[in-house]
Amino acid sequence: MSDGARVIVGVSGSLGSLTALHRAVGEARDRGAVLVPVLAWTPAGGEHNYRLRPCPPLLRAWEDMAAARLERALDEAFGGLPAGVRVEPQVVRGPAGPVLTGLADGPGDLLVVGAGRHGAVRGAVRRMLGGGSVGHHCLAHARCTVLAVPPSDLQDDLRALRRGVDLRELASLAAV
């Protein structure tokens, strides 16, 4: 195993993050690095609202739910912890972009994030509202190499299903 080499990957449980998680495991194996899957979380309603009305038992419950979500994502992706790689899962309170770039600060680190596919209009609206994606934040602020993993084709198929598109019809059109 490489001294100090880590592959840090943002995990939310979404299909995009699971795709990034699979890629991160491969990178960690290839590099002999430690895999650090990270689920960042914030209190429901945001930090500002929590500071106005703090409730420590509720905060513990949110943190427990975040830990369960990370465990569920690892179970969905690999049936538990992936084999053949050392894994150090972390659940961290804070916005995902700053949490990930704060953790991925070593010279041998690799930060893996899902790249997501957003249309031009949706992306422009997010930027106007001060949002922006976790991937964009990481690319702009990381102090290590960032690998942005595009979504798998399966995600497009699932989006089509949600919109009520018949995939057999699409497949027959593609075959023509």
Give structural notes:
With 176 residues, the chain is α/β, with parallel strands linked by helices. The chain has one domain: Rossmann fold (3-Layer(aba) Sandwich), CATH 3.40.50. Helix 4 runs parallel beside helix 6. It contains eight helices and five strands, in the order βαβααβαβααβαα. Helix 1 links the parallel strand 1 and strand 2. Helix content is 52%, strand content 15%. It has a five-stranded parallel β-sheet, sandwiched between helices.
Give the tags.
176 residues, alpha/beta, Rossmann fold, five-stranded parallel β-sheet, 8 helices, 5 strands
Contiguous runs where pLDDT drops below 50 for at least 5 residues: 119-130
CATH superfamily: HUPs
Tell me the Rg in angstroms.
18 Å
Broad CATH class: Alpha Beta
Shape: globular
Q: How would you write the strand order of the largest sheet?
A: 3-2-1-4-5
Pfam families: Usp
InterPro entries: Rossmann-like_a/b/a_fold, UspA
Protein name: Universal stress protein
Domain UspA: 6-150
